[in-house]
Amino acid sequence: MTLDIAVRHDFGATQLDITFAAPPRGITALFGRSGAGKSSVINAVAGIWRPAQCRVAIGDQILADTALNLWLPPEQRRAGLVFQDARLFPHMSVENNLRFGLHRAPPAARRIHLDDVVELLGIAALLPRRPHTLSGGEKQRVAIGRALLSQPRLLLMDEPLASLDDQRRQEILPYLTRLNTALGLPTLYVTHSLDEVVRLADHIVLLRDGHAIASGSLEEMAGRGDLPLAQRADAGSVLRLAVTGHDAARALTRLAAGATEILVPLHDLPIGAMVRVRVPAREVILARPEAARLASETSLHNVLPGTVRAITLDQPNRAAHVEVALPGIQAALLSRVTGDAVARLGLAPGMPLLALVKSVAVEIVGARRGRLD
Fold first, then answer.
1. Largest CA distance in the chain
2. Nearest to 275 by CA among 286, 262, 288
3. Of 30, 74, 192, 349, which is most buried, counting CB atoms within 10 Å of its CB?
């Protein structure tokens, strides 16, 4: 079962033609510049805007199909909406705002309970307060709770953190991760922030000028040198690894997947926990295999054998993006180097090489006990 979406509309100066399929669980990020069509997709899925052509289906449940003249009104789609502004009722307490969401759902559909949402979002202390007394992050948590209590079959979040400062944004991100883990609702998440994508998304759809140019798992997309993500200054790979050990004497934690092992600064994580890590492309140095003997003479902890999967030249940035396949890891490790480095090393697809990564360059952006979905 997938979430299938197709939206087409002619605005005159611009045309929207976006088609993609998203997994039935987890967060799918719609990522692209302003005007790419992200919010238009959200509004069409929610049923608050009707494009010329549209199809929205969750498995065999069709919410919209203009070819069949089928268009369920918003209230029948059971889509939980969260916008940039919380849109709470100012005359109601937090608890009554939450209960408003609960009362919108038919009793037979109520599987998400008030107490569970309050605990997941950490808002028990806020229940008697009015919205004007809340911080921006607290308001957004309440808005998310109200959307969840409407018992949605899918969650739509249109830049929910855009109006928050960085401190409030960092405060709310763990709650969004917790919700994704606990509820597993299919979620479309619109954002301009690559940091939010890396920390939250399971799947990503890249939008540009009204078109979907690529979609896939976060790890797959982040490791591709031929996509616009690789051209960003903050480009980097996302890998999923298991915590396999700690070396307190050296203040290091060992992460691994298959035959690939990566050392990072010591973290307080249980053995067996699954982690999501980000490795900036600019921090990955490439070397020929014979350079391995020199590694002990450097400060580098991670000397990773791999093979060149692909090379993409980035002429605007006078760089090259090299995708390095590592044993036991499905996603590629992305390295940004100069074209001269590619030529000097004689790099070509299929060639064995070493990827050298400082331990302090590897950022753990998410961790869970057991399997990381």
1. 70
2. 262
3. 30
- Sequence-separated (6 or more) residues with CB below 8 Å from residue 239: 219, 257, 262, 276, 277, 279, 329, 331, 333
Give 43-57 pLDDT, tens digit per residue. 999 999 999 999 999
pLDDT of residue 373: 40
Among 291, 282, 287, 276, which residue's Cα sits nearest to residue 335? 282
Asked whether residue 138 carries a pLDDT value surpassing 50, the answer given is yes
pLDDT digit string (tens) for 281-323?
999 999 999 887 776 778 889 999 999 999 999 988 899 999 9
How does the average pLDDT of the chain come out, rounded? 91
Residue 264 and residue 185: Cα distance in Å, rounded?
32
Cα separations in angstroms, 323 against 298, 318, 342:
24, 17, 12
**Alpha-carbon span 258 to 293, nearest angstrom:** 23
As to burial, measured by CB atoms within 10 angstroms (0-12 exposed, 13-18 middle, 19+ buried), residue 106 is: exposed
Report which of 284, 280, 202, 285 is spatially closest to residue 237, judged by C-alpha positions.
280
What's the rounded Cα separation, in Å, for the pair 328 and 41?
36
Q: What is the pLDDT of residue 372?
A: 39
* Of 270, 255, 253, residue with least CA distance to 326: 255
> Which residues, 6 or more positions from 20, have their beta carbon under 8 angstroms from its beta carbon?
5, 205, 212, 215
Q: What is the pLDDT of residues 219-256, one digit of tens each?
A: 999 999 999 999 999 999 999 999 999 999 999 999 99
Domains of the chain: 3-222 (3.40.50.300), 236-368 (2.40.50.100)
Assess contact for 158 and 189: CB atoms under 8 A: no
Centre a 10 Å sphere on the Cβ of residue 125 and count the other Cβ atoms it contains.
Answer: 10
Question: Where do we find the tokens 């405060």?
Answer: 171
